[in-house]
Amino acid sequence: MKTFQLVTRNFSEKIKIKYSVYVKSKQNCIQLIDSSGSVFITASRSVDGLTEIGKKSVLIKNTGECVGVLENLIKNGIVKDSGIKIRSGFYNLNLCQIIDPEFKRL
């Protein structure tokens, strides 16, 4: 698992990236794992009914507890932001491409 220092205005934490797939939507999931092995933040979200976003695509929440996470994922070579936003409930999600060479779709 790739490791980097996640730094936002609210915290600084050494984390590892864990990739998985949401069961219902089959969309990619990115979780940030802390030094104790627990999920620190789930950076991605799943949108039901959105089926064709791509095998290396992921929807990243960049509000609330996830403010600053997208910038860190970009800076550390995990994702590239496409500039496309997808509305889901109260949030706009950033449609990103996973560019981490360690990524393997499950």
Give structural notes.
The chain is built from one helix and eight strands; from the N terminus they run E-E-E-E-E-E-H-E-E. The chain has a four-stranded antiparallel beta sheet with strand order 1-2-3-4, with helices on one face. The protein has one domain. Strand 2 and strand 3 form a beta hairpin. The mean pLDDT is 90. With 106 residues, it is mainly β. The two termini are 14 Å apart. The radius of gyration is 13 Å and the shape is globular.
Descriptive key words:
106 residues; 7% helix; four-stranded antiparallel sheet; 1 helix; mainly beta
Summarize the structure.
Helix content is 7%, strand content 47%.
What is the fold's blueprint, element by element?
Layout lengths: L2 E5 L4 E10 L6 E6 L5 E4 L1 E2 L11 E5 L7 H7 L3 E10 L2 E8 L8
Antiparallel strand pairs: 1-2, 2-3, 3-4, 5-6, 6-8, 7-8
| Rg | 13 Å
How many β strands by DSSP? 8
Seen as an oligomer or otherwise, the chain set is: single chain
- Average of the residue pLDDT scores: 90
Number of helices: 1
| Strand and helix order | EEEEEEHEE
Morphology call: globular
Structural class: mainly beta
Side by side, the strands of the main sheet go 1-2-3-4
How many domains in all? 1
Strand content: over 45%
Q: Which percent bin holds the helix content? A: under 10%
List segments where confidence is low: pLDDT < 50 over at least 5 consecutive residues: none
Largest sheet: 4 strands, antiparallel
- Terminal CA distance: 14 Å
